[in-house]
Amino acid sequence: MAKDASAENSQDADGIARTAAAARPPEFPATLSIEAVRVPESQLLPLAVRLARELHGPGIFVTPTGKAARTLAVELHEAGITNRIVHAQMRARDRAQAVQSFLNHEVPVLVAAENVTLPQGRYAIGYVVHAGAPADMDTYWAQASLAGMEGRGRAILLFDRRDKRLKTLTTRSSGVPTLAEAELALARIRTLAADGDSVEAADLSDPLKMPLRRIRNLLQVLREAGAIRAVASGAYEPAGHVEAAALQEALRNYRDTHQDAESNLKEVLAFAESSLCRRKVVRRYFGEEEAEACGICDNCRRGTEERMRRVTRQRRARALARPEGGAPRQWSRGDLVQHDTWGEGEVKQVWGDKIRVHFPGQGEKVLKAEFVHPA
Length: 375
Description:
Radius of gyration: 24 Å
Number of strands: 14
Strand content: 15-25%
Shape: flat
Strand order of the largest sheet: 1-6-5-2-4-3
Helix content: 40-55%
Number of helices: 12
Distance between the termini: 22 Å
């Protein structure tokens, strides 16, 4: 699991503290009901509109991007639900006015992109709905915990396990350009720029024999290394001599950044799919001590955690009771297991004598099946 250590308790021009878990210690409103709902992306907007009609507000809808925020705001408006919107492309003054009108109860709904400011403090916010998985657990909890600060509240995460961003991040983290590719691209850019022309990604497609997406990744690395500079949108020129060590460092940073982003998003999706008490998973992520089940999250209300514990023990007992020659399958996907070091986790995959387990706060681990026992 990778957490963003660069988050700061910064102030925007509108004077509202930026929403980032690193900016304040996590709070756990006692009356906050935490829920996660798996929904296909095509059904996310209709469900969000329905929730805006049914939930007791005022409430906040958080989207992964500014484009998604604008789309949702329009959908709510067409459904007759008054709302204000905040996203990064707005002026700071306009964002502040939108937030203030929401806090003054002039509008019942605020739609916000996850990377912009949200009001920090204790407000009478009835619910926070994430219309799409946020980038990481720190961001999720900083926003979700705004509900329930005053009275009972609900935090609802709408997610699709086939999140398109996860596929993109996986592709980028596994397709890191090589030093040889970076040097070849830089040499080609210098050759083309010798005639006084700027270079675009399409100009490198034929000589490099690689997809445009990978070329754009290369250009990003070269720019971060200081080897090229942008002269227009999507157009570059050489910026001077760069040592191979600087290129290697830029390549490592590129790989680490995308691997961290992939790991963070996987942690959110694992939380959303977890059978454990939601509050317990959040506490473990932040390194809090073990706590009793909250009794009010969706998993506690459905008895999911206790049912999975019972099923795990029964399945384990049946497997051990079989003759040794039968090569019993010791664990199954969804089993709740305990590890001496990483604590309690959920089995995600089983093959041979190995299992892949997600441990809240520790990420996913691959280990031998014999190293865990029923939770």
